[in-house]
Amino acid sequence: LARFGLGWMLFQQGRCRESLEAFKEYVGSLPPAARQRADLPWRGGLDPTQTAGGSTSRGVTDETVAQLWLAQGCCLMELGDEHAALTHFETLEQLFPGHPRTIEAALSHSELLQRQQRLAEARAVIERLPRRSLTAIQRDHVELRLGSLDVIDGQAEAARARFLSVKDAKETALRQAAFNGLGDAALFLGDDQ
């Protein structure tokens, strides 16, 4: 479990290559059944026989697996391995649809699809999220993501409304992103004030 903690810490510090290596060592140290479960995204994603519940031996809980797949997916995205990142996000979303880490994965998944100009898919990922279970901060992130997609889709008024709904968020980074989005929407509308 110490290797997992190291991998998570390195991920939080943005040291993606080192994080992936620590996670690889962690997964390699697991018993075979747990290792097979933890390696699911590396083996191409969801196996129809695999369920969300699984081994909880030696610290391999659903929480651990969700964190592992989120961190690996984000690191792979950062390092440019888009296909592997998408597989990690999709696997997490399919096996743990109500898990808090799934929301983070969906936001990154949508961003990656947007980069690939797969806008309808990017929007669908976000729209599948269960809105009733989102925290206020998560709702703000979702509105920012959808606002970004609205701007690209030419729906500047819809984007403006989404960004306005976040402009008073508690987190400075969210407020800043909302104001940046409002600027993008204003440029699209031809309002340069």
Task: Write structural notes for this entry.
It is built from 10 helices and no strands. The chain is an all-alpha fold. The mean pLDDT is 90.
Describe, in short, the structure shown:
The protein has 193 residues and is mostly helical. The chain has ten helices and no strands. α9 (156-164) runs antiparallel to α10.
List the helices and strands and how they pair.
Elements: H1 2-12, H2 16-28, H3 32-38, H4 62-78, H5 82-95, H6 100-115, H7 119-127, H8 136-152, H9 156-164, H10 172-189
The tally of strands reads 0
Report strand %: under 5%
Counted by DSSP, the helix tally is: 10
Low-pLDDT residue spans: none
Report the end-to-end length measured between terminal Cα atoms.
Answer: 54 Å
Look at the helices and sheets and give the structural class: mainly alpha
For the biggest sheet, the summary is:
none
- Helical fraction: 55-70%
Q: Give me the strand/helix succession.
A: HHHHHHHHHH
**C-alpha-based Rg, rounded:** 18 Å
Q: Describe the global form.
A: elongated
Mean residue pLDDT = 90
